[in-house]
Design a protein that fits this description.
The complex is a heterodimer of chains A (about 280) and B (about 280).
Chain A lengths: L1 H6 L3 H10 L7 E10 L2 E11 L4 E5 L6 H8 L9 E9 L2 E2 L7 H7 E4 L10 H11 L5 H14 L3 H4 L12 H14 L4 E5 L7 H14 L4 E5 L3 H7 L2 E8 L2 E9 H5 L5 H8 L4
Chain B lengths: L7 H29 L5 H5 L2 E2 L4 E2 L2 H32 L5 H15 L2 H15 L6 H25 L3 H9 L4 H30 L2 H6 L17 H10 L5 H34 L4
Antiparallel strand pairs in B: 1-2
Helix pairs in contact in B: 1-11, 3-6, 3-8, 4-6, 5-6, 6-8, 8-11, 10-11
The chains are: A alpha/beta (about 280), B mainly alpha (about 280).
Chain lengths: ~280, ~280
C-alpha cells in the first residue's frame, strides 16, 4: 500500500512521459473484405483505408456488418466456428489474415473495447496487472508504473488512485469503460478497435469517452463502430457508411468526414446523413 | 404484499404447499431433539464408546467421519473441477467427448448407493488391497458424489458472462490465466454450492461405508484403518444393539447439527469470499 501512495508523487512525470512518446501509428487498410457465417454473408467486398493516427467511424444501421468487419482486424472471428473471411487486411506491412501471423501478438498490437464495459471482476489495479503479467511483465515497479501511466491516459488516475484495491465493479459505467480502454492501452497497442464504446453509457460519460478518444488519436489508429451519427461528426476524421443491400452488409462510401457529411453525392449517404434514412 | 381477491385460492394452495415442505423438517428436528437431547453432553462428543456403544460417546466416530469426508473431498475437488473445466472450456457442449462424459456422469448419478458399495468393496478394498479402511470408504464416496460436483461446477463455469471471455480473448490472455484469475473466482459460489451438496450426500451415506470403511468403533490410527462413520453408528445402534436407540437419536442430532453448521459456515465463507474477491489486494 505504501508503495502505491508513494507512486502518486511521480504522477506528473509519468503523464508527461506518456504524451511525449512519439511512435507513428500504422495505417490500416482493408481491401475487398467479405465475411461469411456459414452461407450467410455479413458484409461483402468492403474496402477502406484508415491513415495512421486518425479515427475512422463505421456508421450504418444494425446488421450491416460493422462489428463483423471490426472483428476481422484482430481476428476475434477466429473463434466463431463457421466464419469465413475473404479479402485482405493490412496493418502497415502486416497481412492480418496470413496464417503464420501470431494471433496473440496481433491482439497485443490491436486492442479492442466492447459495447458493454467488461472489466474483470478483480480489483482496479489487478484489471491492468493481470493482462500485463500474462504478457510477461512481472516486476512490481514496472506493473505499477504502467498502471499509473494508462490510468492517467484515460483520466481515471485521480478518481481511483486511493482505491486501486477495490473492485473494478464498484466503478460507474463510464469509469468501467475507461478502465477497459486503459486495460487495452496497457499492452501498448498501435491500433484500437472500439465497438460502440458509448452505447451503454449516459451522455456525460459519453462526453468523457469522446474527449479521451480525441486524445488517443495522436498516438493510435482508431476504428470505431457507432450508431450515433452526431458522435461520428464530432470525433471522426474519416467515415465509412455501411448499408444493407439485398440482406447483406456493404460499404456504401468511405472517405474524410467532410467528403461524407458535406460533399457526398451518394443518395444513401445523403439520405442517411440528413436523417431521412436509418 | 396485498393479494388480489381473484388470486386468493392460488395464494392459499401455494402457501399450504410451502408449509408442507417445512413441516417434516421441523417435525424431524423436534422428534430428534426430544429423544436425543437428554444425555447430549460434551462428554458424549469426545468420549470413546463402551458397552457396544450403549454407553460412552461418539468421539472416534466423529474423527472417522471427518477423515472419510477429508479423503472424499481431496479426491472430488481436483477431479471434479478438472472435469468441469474440461467440459466447459476445452470441448464444445455438442462434441462426442462432452456427450459421452455427460452420459457417464448421468448414469453414475443415478446409480443406487448399494451398487457403489459393492463396487467400492470389490475394487478399493479387495483389488487395490486397501481393506476396510477410511481410504477405501472416502474414495468410494468420491465416486458416488463426483457427478454432483462436476455438474454443479460445470454449470457455474458456463454461467460466466461471455463478455469476460471476449475481454480475455481480445487481450490475448492464456487460457490457464483466464481460468485461474477470472473463471474460477467468478464461478466460486456455484462450485462451493456443489461441494456442500456433495458433503451432504457423503455425510448421509451409510451403505457404502458399511461395505468399505467398516464399523470398527476404535479411533482410527491411519487412513488404512477401519473407522465407523456417524451414519453407520446410527444404523448399528438402531438396528443391531438392543437399547441403542437413545444413542442413535443423540448421534442423529449431532449429524444433523453438523450438516446445518457446515451449511451456515460455507454461506458465511462465500460472503467473505465475495468481499475479498471484489476488493482483493493483489
Amino acid at each position: 500500500m505504501n508503495r502505491r501512495i508513494s507512486m502518486s508523487d511521480n504522477a506528473t512525470t509519468f503523464a508527461n512521459e506518456h504524451t511525449q512518446s512519439n511512435r507513428t501509428a500504422p495505417e490500416v487498410s482493408i481491401v475487398g473484405l467479405s465475411v461469411y457465417y456459414g452461407n450467410t454473408a455479413a458484409i461483402t467486398n468492403a474496402t477502406l483505408t484508415v491513415p495512421g493516427g486518425s479515427l475512422m467511424a463505421l456508421v450504418g444501421p444494425s446488421g450491416c456488418g460493422k462489428t463483423s468487419l471490426l472483428n476481422c482486424i484482430n481476428r476475434m472471428n477466429d473463434t466463431i466456428a463457421d466464419c469465413r473471411v475473404e479479402g485482405r487486411i493490412t496493418i502497415d506491412d502486416l497481412d492480418v489474415q496470413d496464417p503464420s501471423v501470431d494471433v496473440n501478438l496481433l491482439r497485443q498490437r490491436v486492442g479492442m473495447v466492447f459495447q458493454q464495459p467488461n472489466p474483470f471482476p478483480l480489483s482496479i489495479a489487478e484489471n491492468i496487472h493481470f493482462p500485463l503479467r500474462e504478457h510477461g511483465v512481472h516486476r512490481r515497479a514496472e506493473l505499477d508504473k504502467r498502471t499509473m501511466k494508462v490510468l492517467n491516459a484515460v483520466g481515471l488516475w485521480d478518481e481511483v488512485k486511493d482505491r486501486l484495491r477495490s473492485s473494478a465493479l464498484s466503478l460507474s459505467g463510464g469509469q468501467q469503460q475507461r478502465l477497459c480502454i486503459a486495460r487495452a492501452l496497457a499492452l501498448e497497442p498501435e491500433v484500437l478497435l472500439l465497438d460502440e464504446p458509448c452505447s451503454a453509457l449516459d451522455p456525460l460519460a459519453t462526453e468523457q469517452i469522446e474527449r479521451l478518444i480525441e486524445d488517443l488519436k495522436q498516438q493510435y489508429t482508431l476504428l470505431m463502430v457507432t450508431h450515433n451519427l452526431a458522435q461520428a461528426r464530432r470525433v471522426a476524421d474519416h467515415v465509412t457508411v455501411c448499408w444493407i443491400d439485398e440482406n447483406c452488409g456493404c460499404v456504401v462510401e468511405s472517405g474524410s468526414r467532410e467528403s461524407i457529411f458535406i460533399n457526398s453525392d451518394h443518395p444513401v449517404t445523403k439520405a442517411y446523413c440528413r436523417g431521412d434514412k436509418g | 404484499m396485498t393479494i388480489d381477491r381473484r388470486d386468493y385460492g392460488g395464494f392459499v394452495l401455494c402457501s399450504v404447499a410451502g408449509i408442507t415442505v417445512i413441516v417434516p423438517l421441523v417435525w424431524m428436528i423436534l422428534a430428534l431433539a426430544q429423544s436425543g437431547l437428554p444425555g447430549l453432553e460434551w462428554e458424549f462428543l469426545v468420549a470413546a464408546p463402551s458397552q457396544s456403544g450403549r454407553a460412552g460417546g461418539i468421539g472416534p466416530m466423529i474423527v472417522s467421519t471427518a477423515l472419510i469426508l477429508g479423503v472424499c473431498l481431496a479426491a472430488i475437488i481436483p477431479v471434479g473441477l478438472g472435469t468441469s473445466l474440461y467440459l466447459s472450456q476445452y470441448v464444445s457442449s455438442t462434441s462426442p467427448q462432452a456427450s459421452w462424459l455427460g452420459y457417464s456422469l448421468d448414469v453414475l448419478a443415478g446409480t443406487p448407493s448399494i451398487v457403489f458399495a459393492l463396487f467400492g468393496y470389490q475394487f478399493f478394498a479387495i483389488t487395490l488391497g486397501l481393506g476396510f479402511s477410511i481410504l477405501a470408504g472416502g474414495l468410494t464416496l468420491a465416486c458416488m458424489t463426483l457427478p454432483l460436483m462436476v455438474r454443479t461446477s460445470e454449470q457455474a463455469l458456463r454461467a460466466v458472462p461471455l463478455e469476460l471471455h471476449q475481454a480475455g480473448e481480445a487481450l490475448a490472455l492464456s487460457r490457464p490465466g483466464m481460468i485461474w484469475h477470472v473463471l474460477l473466482p467468478a464461478a466460486m459460489p456455484g462450485i462451493v454450492a456443489g461441494t456442500i451438496l456433495s458433503i451432504g450426500r457423503a455425510l448421509a451415506e451409510t451403505a457404502v461405508l458399511l461395505f468399505t470403511a467398516g464399523y470398527v468403533m476404535r479411533l482410527p490410527g491411519s487412513l488404512l484403518d477401519s473407522g465407523r462413520a456417524l451414519s453407520v453408528h446410527i444404523f448399528d445402534m438402531a438396528m443391531n444393539v438392543p437399547g441403542g436407540m437413545p444413542v442413535a437419536s443423540r448421534t442423529a442430532l449431532v449429524l444433523l447439527t453438523l450438516v446445518i453448521l457446515i451449511n451456515i459456515g460455507v454461506r458465511r465463507m462465500l460472503l467473505h469470499h465475495k468481499r475479498i474477491y471484489y476488493e482483493q489486494t493483489n
